[in-house]
Amino acid sequence: MTTSQLLAYVAISVFCVLEVNSRDTFIAAVYEHAVILPNATLISVPRKEALVLMNRNLDVLEEAITSAAKQGAHIIVTPEDGIYGWKFNRESIYPYLEDIPDPQVDWIPCIHPNRFGHTPVQERLSCLAKDNSIYVVANIGDKKPCNASDLQCPPDGRYQYNTDVVYDSQGKLVARYHKQNLFMSEDQFNVPKEPEVVTFNTTFGRFGIITCFDILFHDPAVTLVKDFHVDTIVFPTAWMNVLPHLSAIEFHSAWAMGMGVNFLASNTHHISKKMTGSGIYAPDSPRAFYYDMKTKEGKLLLSQLDSHPKHLVVNWTSYASGMEALSTGNQEFKGTVFFDGFSFVELRGVTGNYTVCQKELCCHLSYKMSEKRSDEIYALGAFDGLHTVEGSYHLQICTLLKCKTTNLHTCGDSVETASTRFDMFSLSGTFGTQYVFPEVLLSGIQLAPGEFQVSSDGRLFSLKPLSGPVLTVTLFGRMYEKDHTTNASPDLISQTLKEKSAASALKH
């Protein structure tokens, strides 16, 4: 056999192996973890004491990982802060941190634990992946020393990062992501100098990584989908629910639908901070979700997903722009939703067609209730402006929501239960963005899988009478270009393609 024939044979053989090993579907798992927290102190503890706490949490995560693997899961996502909690300053978090190398070093910590210093947490995570033949996504802290030659070096001589790591089914470190958009209270961590766009390849699709607050911003979340064409997002989070539009299961499932990707969201479980809500979401519908403000235990979710999900292309303004903006006259009133000033109109009949506008946004609603109750009021609202509390980001929102009481001044307040059922609804808006996330939330903070869909002309409409009373039906739009923060540099994509995209070997 000639050299050229041999190379051709090898190429064909590799192609066939990849074809055979690639999967059309896979089983995903997420674990909502009731984190064992350290003592409420901001004083640094010895490293040994920090390891004791982290191993207690890892003991719980080990049970979840083992159980998921036994049920056939190919990948499991665990929460942000899931190994040590969240109440720290820069000094007190330090004993919990490890130096996490770039995945390009080709490292299996379970086999070579001391190659990059003392890394017992990374070793244990790697062994959990390897011993159970499953991809493991976890959130830990990374530390990187620096000195005065680096003008951005913090005074304590180190960078500290909120970090996601991924180990493949062989235990190999295949991805490391430093969180870009830190939440207000995360002053124990640094923002990376450049936004990182991190992906990893598997036999069941291409994956991207974001963490918690990242989901509200363009980089790296949108970049991963639009420019790096990932199939699935893994999402460790410590999400505090904010109604009516930002409860975890509600917004995360809407983001999956709006962006056309699978979304694996693993939340911490801490009910005193309103932290609950995990899920496995496909673009067409939620596949599994969990929300529980009563129990204190964690929860493992599993579901099958398509490796390469299909995505409907939507023109979010097409339908609404062809409708007349009906005058609401004196019927319009003002209300507040999470500190944002909405324009509202009350839904007065059991059925109706309403329009409400604010600035460039007009929202149109057609609906039919099962009955018009005297003890509940619903309103159609519009908001077009910059949200400035707990972050700064520009929103365009059309929302049908239940008011807290029969007083119109309570429209927009947090509401968890309702009694009014809707036989049908159709909601649309004249959005100035292609990034719109469709939400439907029912009484008791429940989703409505398979009960609604989005049309290519931008309507969010019911497929049948909803299975429960409605809290909100919402089109949540983001106008990233109007944010006050600067977007990533133009060469972000080319830079990260070369340096930040962590690709694993195509193995199970």
Task: Characterize the structure shown.
The protein has 508 residues and is an alpha+beta fold. It has helices at 3-21, 47-70, 90-93, 120-132, 218-226, 248-259, 318-321, 492-499; strands spanning 25-32, 75-77, 135-145, 158-167, 173-178, 199-202, 205-209, 232-237, 262-267, 278-281, 286-290, 299-306, 332-337, 340-346, 351-358, 361-369, 378-387, 393-402, 422-429, 436-442, 452-454, 460-462, 470-478. α2 runs parallel beside α4 (120-132). The chain is globular, with a radius of gyration of 24 Å. The chain starts with a helix and ends in a 9-residue tail after the last helix. The model is unreliable at 1-20 and 485-508 (pLDDT under 50).
Q: What is the number of helices?
A: 8
Largest sheet: 6 strands, mixed
Helix fraction by DSSP (H/I, runs of at least 4): 10-25%
In round numbers, the mean pLDDT is 91
Number of strands: 23
Helix and strand composition category: alpha+beta
Report the portion of residues in β strands: 25-35%
In the sheet with the most strands, the strands line up as 5-4-3-2-1-12
Gyration radius over CA = 24 Å
Runs with pLDDT <50, length 5+?
A: 1-20, 485-508
From the N-terminal CA to the C-terminal CA, the straight-line distance is: 32 Å
The 3D shape can be described as globular
